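Let us practice reading a record.
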Amino acid sequence: MQRPKISIIISTYNSEAWLEKVMWSYEAQTYKNFEMVIADDGSKQPTFDLIEQMKFKVSYPIIHVWHEDNGFQKSQILNKAIQSCNADYILMSDGDCIARKDYVEVHLNESEEGYFLSGGYFMLPMHISELITKEDILSQRCFDVKWLKSHGLTSSFKNNKLTSTGLKRKVLNAITPTNASWNGHNASGWKKDILAINGFDERMQYGGQDRELGERLFNYGLKSKQIRYSAICLHLDHPRGYKTQESIDKNLAIRATTKSDRLKWTDYGIEKSKTSD
């Protein structure tokens, strides 16, 4: 089997209904030479069952990386997933983000040595998230603003994400006030660069662990490219029971140190420091 050009890490946790929709969206991709590495933060049997079934339904290879449930430990499972990637280039997204058919192709076309890519997402309300079917994904209807509006989507400037092409897309990518940070739902970079900074800081739970990785990539000397109007994914709605002020505050303190000390490496990443507790 040919070696994949790109590894797509999809994080998940006990959300098989959403994960199935996401997996169908990668079956619809225009670019085909990729593998999916599912970073599973301790899901139960229904997720295992889904992944086993989907292996026979989709045309791309799937690697399921799992560890036991120990609370929100996304940084740990992402580091394990990074090590399982067979491609030189890694795209990261989440198990609640349906990728438009050109999503992987855009990331590959925009990839460049010395850079990582920063995309965003298009947030859907819960009622539309629930009604989207496999057929809506494979036909790409769910990315059509008219179709979304017919199901209750309101008018917004953000709808430009779904309709922009050519020059308009370039201009909007250039003028958006949003920083081109590493966003866990839509970002890509070279595996060698991610390994060079030791991956994610495993002390960090919910709240900005992806941004902190990006900040160390900047300190390592990388630049970033904004592709939020080019690489499009739909974010399915869900509750966030794992969000706590304590974890957010702890992560902000770690990020502040990363910035002030211009840290490139974390002792709490893929390779564990002998001095870290």
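A brief commentary: The chain has a mean pLDDT of 93.
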